[in-house]
TrEMBL record:
It comes from Hibiscus sabdariffa. Residues 495-527 are annotated as: Disordered. Residues 514-524 have a biased composition (Basic and acidic residues). Residues 67-416 form the Aminotransferase-like plant mobile domain. Residues 496-513 have a biased composition (Basic residues). This is Aminotransferase-like plant mobile domain-containing protein.
Length: 727
C-alpha cells in the first residue's frame, strides 16, 4: 500500500520488473533498505610502498617493454572508502554496470586505456594455475620463499620487496631480469590484481613475465577490468565487507564522470599528462573527513543529469595519448568477454552508449550466466576450460556497438525506471515512518469511536468494537499501557554500535564460505539480526461470516530499551525457537490483551512479511502449531500462556470471540496454534542478544506496515457498516 503524498519509490524502490535485476534479494541495497548498515568497505590496494622500489634504467626499460611503463608512474592516491562503498551499492553484477538515477554507466575498456595507459587489445591474460610457490619462484626469480612467506599459490608482497626491491649495480642481465619480474609481480599484485588477502599475490602471473617482449602483447587493461568487475560484483553482495581490484581506477573514474566527492585541485593543470589518473596527483582541497557512506548514498540517490560528465575526456589534450593507445580505442565499444585467468566478465558498452556520445535505446537482454570458479588444482591450463570465452574475445573486433540516431531516450528512461533499483537509502527516516503509522492508527481509532451506532446490525456493532479494541491494543504505549513499542533513535541510520552487532545462534556452527558469494552464500551477521516477529500479510479484505473465527495475524514487536523477544530460526521451519534476550531485561512484555472490548483480541502469529520493507532470508511460518494448553475451543485455536515467570518476557495471546473481523491473510491458516515465547525459552538454552537500535526500529516499521494494512481493512469495515445503516 502506497502512502498518500509519498514518492512511490519510498514504498517500493524497485525493481518493478525483476527480469534484469533478478538477484535483488542478495544485493546490498536490500539490506540497506531493511536498516542493516555494513559501514564502509575495507579497500585493499597496496600502492603505498611502491615508491620504495629502486629501479635501474635497464629495469625501467624492461618494465616499459612489458607494457607497464605508465602504470609504474601512477602514484599512490588516497582512497575514499565511503565513496567507493556507495558506488558498490549501485553496482549490479547482472549487467556489470552502475544503476544510477540517470541511467546505467560503467567503467569501460576506453576508460582503462585513458586512465591507466594499459593495453586493451592483445592476447588474453590466461595461463597455468599453481597451488605452491617454490618451483615457479625458483625458476623465474632464482629463489623460493620459505613457508612463512608463502601459502598455497600466493607469495607475500613483503617477501618480494625485501629481497628484490634494489637490484645490485653490478648485477648480470639474468639477475636484472629476475629483479624486474619480482617488481612486475609486486606491481600487479598491489594495483590491478590486488586481492582481499591484504598482502599476497598469486604467482601464476610470473610465467607471463618470462619474456618481456611477449608480456607486452597481453591485454593487461582488459584483464584489469575483468578483475575489477568481479571484485565489484562480489562486494555488492550483502554479506561482503571487503573489496579489492584496481580501486584507484574506480575512484578516478568517478572523479571524471560524477560531480560527487570530486576533490578540488590546488591549481588547474597547465597541460594534461598521460595517463589521465595523474590529474589527481598531489594535494587536493575538499572536506572529506565528515563524509560517510550515508552522505554519498544520498548524493547518488539524488543524482541529476547536470552532475554527470558523459564525455569527460573530450577536451583532454589528445596529443599526449600514445599512438598505440589511440589506435585501439575503438575496442572500447566492443561487446565481448573480458578475461583474467579464471575470471571472465561481460563488457557491455551497448548499455552505456551515452558514454560514447550516442543516444541510448533500450538495450537487449543480458543472458544469465554462472560465474564459475576454475583452476583450483595446480598445474591446470585454463585455456582448455574457457574455450567459449576465449572465442568471444578473439572475435572482439566483430562486435563493435554502433549508435542509433532514431533512439528515443525518453522511452529508454521509462523502461529503465521499471527494471532498476531507483534509490538505495530510505527517503523517509525509520522514525518518521513509524510516527506516520502511529498517526494512522490514531485516526482509525477516532473514526471508530465517533462512528454513529444507531441502526447498526449486531454483527456490525461487534465489528466496530473489535476495530476499537485492536487499535487501542496497537496504541497501548501511546495511551499509558505497560508495553512500550519504542523505536530507539539514539543512533541514526548509518552509524554502527561497535561490540553489539553479533548474535549467537544455537546450533548453526560456523558459516559456510563459498568461492563465489553469489552462489550459495550464507547469511551474513547483519542478515541474522532481524528482531521481532515478522508476519506474512498479502491482503486484508473485509468479509462477513456467522460465528466463525478468522485469524487476524498481526505482528506486535514490542521492544523496551535494548531488550526484546527475538526470533531465531537456524534452518528449520517446523522447529522454531524463541530465545529470550535476558541480558538486562526489565520485564518487557508482549501483548497482554486482558482488557479487551467485546471479547475481541489480537492473535499474535508468526509469518513472513510480503512487504518490500520486511523481507527476511528464512521463512518462519509452519502450517500449524500443536500446543498442550487451550484457553477455549474457538475454532481449534490453542494458546499456551505462561504468566507466572516474572523474570522472563511474557506473551499472552487472547483469541476469544473474534467473530466478524473478516480479514483473510495471504497464507490462510485454519488451525493455527500459537505458543507463548517463554514456554519455548524454558525448553531451550537462552541466548544473549545485542540488538542494534536501527534494526529494532526496522522491526517496529514492519509492524507499522502491517498495521497500515489493518487500517485499510478497518476503513472498509466502517464504510460497509455505514452504507448498511444508510440503506
Amino acid at each position: 500500500m502506497e502512502e498518500i503524498g509519498m514518492d512511490p519509490s519510498a514504498a517500493n524502490p524497485g525493481p518493478l520488473d525483476p527480469s534484469v535485476l533478478y538477484d535483488q534479494e542478495k544485493h546490498v541495497s536490500s539490506a540497506v533498505w531493511d536498516g542493516q548498515e555494513r559501514g564502509a568497505l575495507r579497500c585493499h590496494e597496496h600502492t603505498s610502498k611502491l615508491s620504495e622500489w629502486r629501479l635501474t634504467p635497464k629495469q625501467i626499460e624492461l618494465v616499459e617493454t612489458a607494457g607497464f611503463g605508465y602504470l609504474r608512474e601512477i602514484p599512490a592516491i588516497s582512497l575514499d572508502n565511503p565513496l567507493i562503498s556507495a558506488l558498490v551499492e549501485r553496482w549490479r553484477r547482472e549487467t556489470n554496470t552502475f544503476h544510477f538515477t540517470v541511467g546505467e554507466m560503467t567503467v569501460t575498456l576506453q576508460d582503462v586505456a585513458f586512465l591507466l595507459g594499459l593495453a586493451i587489445d592483445g592476447m588474453p591474460v590466461i595461463g597455468i594455475t599453481y597451488t605452491t610457490c617454490g618451483t615457479v619462484c625458483e625458476r623465474y626469480l632464482g629463489r623460493a620463499p620459505d613457508s612463512t612467506y608463502a601459502s598455497g599459490g600466493m607469495v607475500k608482497l613483503s617477501w618480494l620487496k625485501e629481497f628484490f626491491s634494489q637490484c645490485p649495480k653490478d648485477a648480470s642481465i639474468e639477475e636484472i631480469e629476475r629483479h624486474t619480474r619480482a617488481y612486475l609481480l609486486y606491481l600487479v599484485g598491489s594495483t590491478i590484481f590486488s586481492t582481499t588477502t591484504g598482502n599476497k599475490v598469486p604467482v601464476m602471473y610470473l610465467p607471463l613475465f618470462e619474456k618481456f617482449e611477449n608480456a607486452g602483447r597481453y591485454a593487461w587493461g582488459a584483464a584489469a577490468l575483468a578483475f575489477l568487475y568481479r571484485a565489484l560484483g562480489n562486494a555488492s553482495v550483502r554479506s561482503q565487507s571487503t573489496i579489492c581490484g584496481c580501486l584507484t581506477l574506480l575512484q578516478c573514474w568517478s572523479y571524471f564522470h560524477l560531480n560527487i566527492g570530486r576533490p578540488k585541485l590546488n591549481r588547474d593543470p597547465i597541460h594534461d599528462h598521460f595517463p589521465f589518473v595523474l590529474r589527481w596527483k598531489g594535494k587536493q582541497i575538499g572536506p572529506t573527513t565528515n563524509r560517510d557512506v550515508v552522505f554519498y548514498r544520498k548524493a547518488l540517490d539524488s543524482l541529476e543529469p547536470c552532475d554527470v560528465e558523459w564525455l569527460p575526456y573530450k577536451y583532454m589534450d589528445g596529443l599526449v595519448i600514445p599512438e598505440e593507445i589511440r589506435n585501439s580505442l575503438v575496442l572500447g565499444r566492443s561487446k565481448t568477454m573480458l578475461i583474467c585467468f579464471d575470471k571472465a566478465e561481460r563488457h557491455l558498452p551497448n548499455r552505456v552508449l551515452r558514454q560514447f556520445s550516442m543516444l541510448q535505446p533500450i538495450p537487449e537482454g543480458v543472458p544469465q550466466w554462472v560465474r564459475k570458479s576454475r583452476g583450483v588444482d595446480g598445474g591446470v591450463d585454463l585455456s582448455g576450460k574457457m574455450e567459449s570465452e576465449l572465442n568471444e574475445w578473439a572475435n572482439r573486433a566483430l562486435h563493435i556497438v554502433e549508435g542509433d540516431d532514431d533512439a528515443d531516450e525518453n522511452e529508454y528512461m521509462g523502461w529503465y525506471f521499471r527494471i532498476t533499483r531507483k534509490i538505495v537509502g530510505r527517503p523517509v527516516s525509520l522514525s518518521s515512518e513509524f510516527q506516520r503509522t502511529i498517526g494512522g492508527v490514531r485516526e482509525i481509532l477516532y473514526l471508530a469511536e465517533t462512528f454513529p451506532l444507531k441502526g447498526l446490525l449486531p454483527e456490525q456493532f461487534a465489528s466496530i468494537s473489535r476495530i476499537m479494541s485492536i487499535a487501542q491494543e496497537c496504541l497501548r504505549d501511546q495511551v499509558g499501557g505497560t508495553v512500550v513499542v519504542s523505536p530507539i533513535v539514539g543512533n541514526e541510520l548509518g552509524k554502527r554500535t561497535r561490540g553489539k552487532e553479533r548474535v549467537r545462534r544455537k546450533g548453526t556452527g560456523k558459516r559456510k564460505r563459498s568461492n563465489d558469494p553469489m552462489e550459495g552464500h550464507g547469511g551474513s551477521e547483519d542478515e541474522s539480526q532481524y528482531c521481532g516477529i515478522v508476519v506474512e500479510v498479502d491482503q486484508l479484505h473485509s468479509y462477513h461470516t456467522n460465528n466463525e473465527v478468522n485469524h487476524l495475524r498481526l505482528c506486535d514487536t514490542a521492544i523496551e530499551g535494548e531488550t526484546a523477544l527475538l526470533l531465531d530460526t537456524p534452518n528449520k521451519i517446523d522447529d522454531i525457537q524463541f530465545h529470550d534476550g535476558n541480558d538486562g531485561i526489565d520485564a518487557s512484555q508482549f501483548c497482554d490483551a486482558s482488557n479487551e472490548a467485546d471479547n475481541s483480541n489480537i492473535l499474535n502469529a508468526i509469518g513472513e512479511s510480503d512487504l518490500q520493507t520486511a523481507k527476511t532470508m528464512e521463512e518462519v511460518i509452519p502450517q500449524s502449531f500443536e500446543l498442550p494448553d487451550a484457553t477455549d475451543g474457538t475454532n481449534n485455536s490453542e494458546i499456551h500462556n505462561e504468566t507466572n515467570k516474572p523474570d522472563y518476557s511474557k506473551a499472552c495471546n487472547a483469541t476469544n470471540g473474534i467473530n466478524d473481523l473478516q480479514t483473510p491473510v495471504g497464507t490462510h491458516v485454519n488451525e493455527t496454534q500459537t505458543c507463548d515465547a517463554t514456554d519455548r525459552v524454558s525448553r531451550s538454552q537462552p541466548s544473549d542478544f545485542a540488538v542494534h537500535s536501527d534494526q529494532q526500529m526496522c522491526c517496529s516499521i514492519k509492524r507499522g506496515h502491517i498495521v497500515m494494512y489493518f487500517l485499510e481493512a478497518a476503513k472498509d469495515e466502517l464504510a460497509s457498516a455505514f452504507y448498511s445503516m444508510q440503506g
